[in-house]
Structures are given as C-alpha cells and as structure tokens.
Amino acid sequence: MSQDTVMDLRKFVVPEIIIGTDARLLIHRYLTHFNSKRPMIVTDRGVKNQPWFLELESLIQSNSEDMIIFDDVTPNPRDYEAMMGAEIFLSHDCDLLIAIGGGSPIDCAKCISIVSTNGGHILNYEGVDEIKLPGPPLICIPSTSGTSADISQFAIIQDSQESVKRAIISKKVVPDLALIDPIPLMTMDKYLTACTGMDALTHAIEAFVSNAHSPLTDVHALEAISLIYNNINKAMEENRTLDTMYQMLLGSLQAGLAFSNASLGAVHAMAHSLGGLLDLPHGECNSILLEHVIALNYETEIERYKAIAKQLDIPIQHLTDDAIRNELLLKIHNMREKLNIPSFLQVDTLTSEIIDRLVVNAQNDPCMVTNPRILSTKELKNIYEQILRV
Ligand SMILES: [Fe+2]
C-alpha cells in the first residue's frame, strides 16, 4: 500500500440493500418496519403501466391506510416537479417515500424528501453536504440496471430557468433501503437496456480513475466492469434470462457503490451539461462521450486504464502502453456499435454559443473535479463539436 493511500481519508456510505428475485415484494415488511401509514409512490407514467407495477401498487395499498401516487416525473426531472411532489407529500401528510423506476423518479423522490423536511427551494441544496435534516424514510425499487440512484449519495435535478442540471451530493440523500429485483428488468426496452448498461459501465470506469478513488471503491469498480462487459450483449437478446438481468443489476450495483463514494469524471460532467441544456438522454450521452474522454485521460492514469483493459479481456501483458490504449478505445467503440448506440447526438440547432455554454456548464459540474486530469476548454469544445450534429 502506498504512503498516499495510507494518508488519504476516505468515506464509504451504503444503504441497506436486498438483491434477488422478488426482492420488491418485501416492501410490505418494510412499511410495517417504518410504521408507515401513508406512503407516497414516486414514479413515471411508463413504469406505472407495467404489469409488475400494478402488483406492487396493490401490495402497498393493502398494507397502508392511504397511499398517494406521484407520477408527474419526466426524464431529466425538473426542479418544479420536485417542488410539486413535496407540496403533495406534505398536504397529504405522507410519512414515507417509495421511488419506483429509473434514475429520474428516484432522483425526484430524493429531492421531494429534502424539500419536505428542510423547506425552501430544491436548488438551494445544490453542492456537497448542503442538507441539514434527514428526510422521511426512502425506499427505492429500481427498474433499470444503470443509474444506481437507488444506493447513491447523488440527486441530479434540472434547473428549469437556467437549463442546467444541478447536482446535490450528500449522505442525507442515500436511500434507507434498496430492493433490487431482476423481475422488473425483464420487460425493459432494448435501447434503454443498452444505454443504462453503458451508463453503469461509465460509472465504474470513472470511479476507478477518479481522484477520490479508494481501495474500497476500486474493488467494486473492477468487478462492475467485468460483470457489465460479460452480460450486456446477453441482456439485449430476445430471450434474455433472469440470471443475465441479475448479473446486470449486480454490475450496476457495484458500479454504484464505487461512484457514490469515489464520484465521477468528465464523461458525466459533459453528459450533465448536454442533458441540462439540450434535454438529451443521460445514458446515451455517456455512451457516446466515453471513448472521447478515455482518449484524453489515458496518459494520466495509464496503470489504472490497463487494469480496466484487463477486465475487458484485452491481453495487456503482450501489448505496449500505446497499443493497450488503442485496444481499449476500440473495445469501447465496438461495444457501443454492437449495442446500436450511435456515435453522435442529433440536435435541432447548433451554434457556437450553444457549444460555449455546454463547455462552461461542464467545467462547473462537480463531477469534473474528480476527473484524473483537467481538460482544457479547447478539448471539451472539440469533443462537443465531434459528437453533436444538426
Ligand atoms: Fe450516470
């Protein structure tokens, strides 16, 4: 162990986690455990129509005196959606939050929790450790294998006035319980499977090369890379199995344990900027950005990227550092291509002002702080110019 590692203080925060088939059905036990009478479900309309959701809804209903469903959550959830949710939570005297869905409903539920307990406006809590009081119990049931919002210290919310995504980072947004179940994933749309899987891979890679990594996060990051790499193509098959989706969930969970505690890097900073200004999907942005950022970061963290390459079955012992770099970039490129994720994002209009705003917003994103090297304005601009097309 190096002297640097010995001297660096590192924190590792995790919620209670239950993972396995039918984990979601344990919800009724936890409603009793938390003595909840009036839970509020936070979800979106796509999830609400899934057959497994209806089963879950009736289970929650039969174990509560009253129940509210808040489904006004859009992809890239907005500040006003969280404020509306908090108002409904308080006016119905709710006592517990259940977030069911992908990252958007879970992040929105975290924001509802913050405002319902601490008051004020959600954007007042942007940044690290700005929340004073812990919120009501929060239980998460994820329906994708990607965001890890169900276990993370992050809540990302859209500032609707400024068109910027704001990151709220605090252990007070770590959920109380994550019920991680492969059953809801069986009906997940293929493209969403691809994009959320690549998002999870990005979490693991960025956490592993982050300036804030630690031995506790490294072990999870490396295992996540391997799990996602070995299962993502099988998850895209028509006859995907429960075991494959379980492995994807496990990979996503391990990536989440890593990034929640080591933070992320330039891929996420740039993706947040794209999502905020142009309302583009998070997983798709990350999938497209990943190879560009690795190309710039590689020289700064060669040994760490070699360890990543090894997890991706690249025979590093027979290759020079330069050759490993090229193989790693090719591997990520080929993974994206095989998943039918394009190499660029289509936008309605593209001006130099838009590119400049994207660059500034990415530079101000908290995830940029832990990227292994500082990317110049020119480098960020070049990437955006390469990946955006009218
Ligand atoms: Fe992400």
Structural commentary:
- This protein is α/β, with parallel strands linked by helices and 390 residues long.
- It has two domains: 170 residues, Rossmann fold; 201 residues, Dehydroquinate synthase-like - alpha domain (Dehydroquinate synthase-like, alpha domain, Up-down Bundle).
- It contains 15 helices and eleven strands.
- The strands form three sheets. A six-stranded parallel sheet has the order 1-9-6-4-2-3, with helices on one face.
- Strand 7 and strand 8 form a beta hairpin.
- The protein starts with a helix and ends with a strand.
- The model has no long low-confidence stretch (mean pLDDT 95).
- The chain binds fe (ii) ion (FE2).
- The site of fe (ii) ion has 6 residues, from helix 7 and helix 11.
Give structural attributes.
Rossmann fold; 6-stranded parallel β-sheet; Dehydroquinate synthase-like, alpha domain; alpha/beta; globular; single chain; 11% strand; 390 residues
Q: Give the strand order, joined by hyphens, for the main sheet.
A: 1-9-6-4-2-3
Average pLDDT value? 95
The end-to-end span amounts to: 50 Å
Number of strands: 11
Number of helices: 15
How many structural units, i.e. domains?
A: 2
Residue share in β-strands: 5-15%
CATH topology of the largest domain: Dehydroquinate synthase-like, alpha domain
3D shape = globular
Which molecules are bound besides the chains?
fe (ii) ion
Annotated CATH architecture of the largest domain:
Up-down Bundle
Kindly provide the radius of gyration, computed on alpha-carbon positions and rounded to a whole number of angstroms: 20 Å
